[in-house]
Write a structure and sequence with these properties.
single chain, 409 residues, Rossmann fold, 10 helices, 8 strands, 32% helix, globular, disordered N terminus
C-alpha cells in the first residue's frame, strides 16, 4: 500500500476500534477500487455533435438557448439513480434508471456519453430547466478541468474525445440565440476526487482524519484554480463576442458546488462501527464531514463568488442545495421495497459504491436524478432573474419543485 501514511494507523480517533467487521465493499480492496475509479470525478441537445448547425443564427434570431458547460456537477453525473438502495439486483428497488427489465443500459440515461464517460444525463441541470428557452444544450463533461473549457488557441485541451468546450460553444452560439451560459468548473482543478478518496481511506483504513492534511492542499491550489476559472469566463466571452453577441445579449451564470455529505451531527449512522461503510455509503469521520460541509464547500463558494463579481457574471450558490438530502442525512432514507424512491424522502446524492456493484464509482458523491431536477429548478429560477446573485435551497419535506432562491449580499 505504498503512498499511504501507515504511521497514522496506530492511533484511531475517538469512538473507533481498530477491529473490523466484514462489509459490503470489503476494506482495502474497495479502497483501491475507489482510488482507481475516482481518478477516472424545450428542445434538448447533448454535446456539440447534436448542437445543430443546419442554419446560421445570430443574437436575437434562431432558437433561444441555455448552454451548460463545465464538469460533472453540471454534466449530469449520477443522473442514473433515484436514491440509494442496498438491493443489488433488478431495478435496485426502482433506483436504477438504467434497468431495462432484463439488463442494465446506462445509455438510457447518459446517451452516447455513457461510453466516453462524460455522463451527460437526460436529467442534467440544463435539461431540467424547463419553462425557459427553446433549446437546452449540454456540453459539460464529467472530470473536466478549466483547461478543458479554454479555447484550443488559448491552451485548451480536448477531453474524452471531445473538443475544448469553448470551441464547441462557437458553433452553438452561431446556430442559436444563446441567452444564458451556466458554468460549473474548478472542482477538478482543486482535486475533488482526490480529497474524497483520501478522506474515505482515512476512515476505512487509517483511522485518522483527512481535514488536517487536505486543507493545506486546497489552500495551495485555490489561487491558481480561481485564476483559471476567471480565464474560462473570459474564453466564453471571447467566443460569444466573435459570434456577434454584445455583453448584454447573454448572461454567464457561475455556480458553486453543493455538499453531498451532511454535518457529523446530521448523519443518521453512528461514527463508530461500520454502518457508514456497510449501509450508508458515507465513510467519513464527523470532523471531516464538518470540515467539508462548513469550511471547504463555503471556502470554494466564496472564492467563486469573487470570480463571478470580477468577471461580470451572475453567481448561483448551491452550497445548501442538498441540505437534509445528502447521503446518510438524518432527514432522508435509503430506498427499499417498503420505501420506494421519492423526491420527498430519498437521498438526492449518490453514495460511494467503491466496489462498483451498482455502476461506476465515478458517479459517487454527485447529485443524483432528484438532485439534478432540483438544480434544474434553481437554474430556471435564476434565469428569471436578469441581475443579482442568489443562493438556492430546498424546502424541507418538499419535492424538487420546492427549491427557492435567496438574494445574496
Amino acid at each position: 500500500m505504498s503512498g499511504f501514511r501507515p504511521t497514522r494507523a496506530s492511533a484511531p480517533p475517538p469512538g473507533r476500534s481498530r477491529s473490523r467487521s466484514p462489509w459490503r465493499r470489503t476494506g482495502r480492496r474497495a479502497a483501491l477500487a475507489l482510488s482507481v475509479a475516482l481518478a477516472a470525478l424545450g428542445t434538448t441537445v447533448t454535446g456539440v455533435g447534436g448542437a445543430g448547425t443546419t442554419a446560421a443564427a445570430s443574437p436575437g434570431s434562431g432558437p433561444t438557448a441555455i448552454v451548460s458547460m463545465g464538469d460533472s456537477y453540471i454534466s449530469g453525473e449520477a443522473g442514473r439513480w433515484r436514491g440509494n438502495s442496498l438491493t443489488n439486483s433488478g431495478s435496485r428497488d426502482g433506483t436504477d434508471r438504467a434497468w431495462t427489465g432484463s439488463t442494465y443500459d446506462p445509455s438510457q440515461v447518459y446517451g452516447t456519453t455513457a461510453s466516453n464517460g462524460c455522463h451527460r444525463s437526460d436529467s442534467a441541470e440544463v435539461h431540467s430547466a424547463t419553462g425557459t428557452t427553446q433549446a437546452l444544450i449540454n456540453i459539460a463533461c464529467s472530470g473536466a478541468t478549466t483547461q478543458n473549457v479554454f479555447r484550443s488557441v488559448s491552451g485548451g485541451q480536448s477531453y474524452k474525445g471531445e473538443a475544448p468546450q469553448a470551441d464547441q460553444l462557437a458553433s452553438i452560439a452561431a446556430a442559436n440565440d444563446v441567452k444564458v451560459i451556466a458554468l460549473s468548473i474548478g472542482g477538478n482543478d482543486l482535486g475533488f476526487a482526490s480529497i474524497i478518496e483520501k478522506c474515505a481511506k482515512d476512515y476505512i483504513i487509517w483511522y485518522s482524519y483527512c481535514h488536517d492534511d487536505q486543507q493545506p492542499v486546497v489552500d495551495s491550489k485555490i489561487d491558481t484554480a480561481m485564476t483559471n476559472v476567471g480565464k474560462a469566463i473570459d474564453e466564453v466571452r471571447t467566443v460569444m463576442s466573435g459570434a456577434g453577441y454584445s455583453a448584454s445579449a447573454y448572461r454567464v451564470v457561475l455556480q458553486s458546488y453543493p455538499s453531498p455529505i451532511p454535518r457529523g451531527s446530521e448523519n443518521r449512522y453512528a461514527e463508530s462501527g461500520w454502518s457508514r461503510v456497510n449501509t450508508g455509503g458515507c465513510p467519513f469521520w464527523n470532523k471531516d464531514s464538518d470540515w467539508a460541509r462548513d469550511s471547504l464547500v463555503p471556502q470554494i463558494a466564496g472564492r467563486l463568488k469573487e470570480v463571478a463579481a470580477a468577471k461580470g457574471a451572475q453567481f448561483l450558490d448551491l452550497r445548501d442545495m442538498l441540505q437534509g438530502r445528502e447521503v446518510c442525512a438524518t432527514a432522508s432514507r435509503l430506498v427499499s421495497a417498503a420505501q420506494p424512491p421519492s423526491a420527498t424522502t430519498s437521498e438526492w446524492a449518490r453514495w460511494i459504491d467503491s466496489s462498483e456493484t451498482q455502476g461506476p464509482v465515478q458517479e459517487s458523491m454527485h447529485p443524483n436524478y432528484y438532485g439534478q431536477l432540483s438544480q434544474g429548478r434553481c437554474l430556471s429560477l435564476i434565469y428569471a432573474q436578469p441581475t443579482g446573485d442568489y443562493g438556492c435551497r430546498n424546502t424541507a419535506g418538499s419535492g424538487t419543485s420546492g427549491m427557492y432562491l435567496t438574494a445574496l449580499p
